[in-house]
From TrEMBL:
<keyword id="KW-1133">Transmembrane helix</keyword>
<feature type="transmembrane region" description="Helical">
    <location>
        <begin position="12"/>
        <end position="37"/>
    </location>
</feature>
<feature type="transmembrane region" description="Helical">
    <location>
        <begin position="97"/>
        <end position="115"/>
    </location>
</feature>
<protein>
    <recommendedName>
        <fullName>DUF1648 domain-containing protein</fullName>
    </recommendedName>
</protein>
<keyword id="KW-0812">Transmembrane</keyword>
<dbReference type="InterPro" id="IPR012867">
    <property type="entry name" value="DUF1648"/>
</dbReference>
<feature type="transmembrane region" description="Helical">
    <location>
        <begin position="57"/>
        <end position="85"/>
    </location>
</feature>
<dbReference type="Pfam" id="PF07853">
    <property type="entry name" value="DUF1648"/>
</dbReference>
<feature type="domain" description="DUF1648">
    <location>
        <begin position="26"/>
        <end position="70"/>
    </location>
</feature>
<keyword id="KW-0472">Membrane</keyword>
Length: 136
């Protein structure tokens, strides 16, 4: 027969895993994709735009460090939440928010980088501007 404390401990371990595994999984996928795309990316990767085009860039190493920091922070926050939050509802909400936000931000960064494959310089990219005054 299982002792109540061992059931409680296994529940905590499961919650910690639910808090950490999604962040680690998205980190692994992101690092694999960035590694595969490395040769096709420009030396400077666009990371910020304004109404006139690119106004902020970062190296691939900078992007990798950013992705690692975000995913590790998400895993740590999810793991701590899984260990210390004991009530079911707040735990589910917290893990959903932490995991969802981590996956969303990392996927957004990686998809933005992926869209720049095959470009020699990010400054050659121009926004298409519609000229509304030429329409009749």
């Amino acid at each position: 027969m299982n002792h109540p404390s061992s059931q409680h401990r296994s529940g905590r371990v499961a919650a910690v895993l639910l808090g950490t595994v999604p962040s680690i999984a998205v980190l692994v996928v992101a690092l694999v994709l960035l590694r595969i795309w490395r040769a096709d990316l420009p030396k400077e990767i666009a990371t910020h735009w304004n109404s006139h085009g690119v106004d902020g860039t970062m190296s691939l190493l900078g992007v990798v460090v950013t992705v690692v920091v975000i995913a590790v922070l998400g895993a740590v926050l999810g793991g701590v939440a899984g260990w210390y939050i004991r009530e079911s509802e707040p735990l589910r909400v917290t893990l959903g928010l932490v995991n969802g936000l981590t996956v969303f931000v990392v996927a957004g960064i990686v998809s933005t980088v992926g869209a720049q494959r095959g470009i020699t310089s990010v400054y050659d990219i121009a926004f298409r501007q519609s000229n509304s005054s030429s329409r009749v």
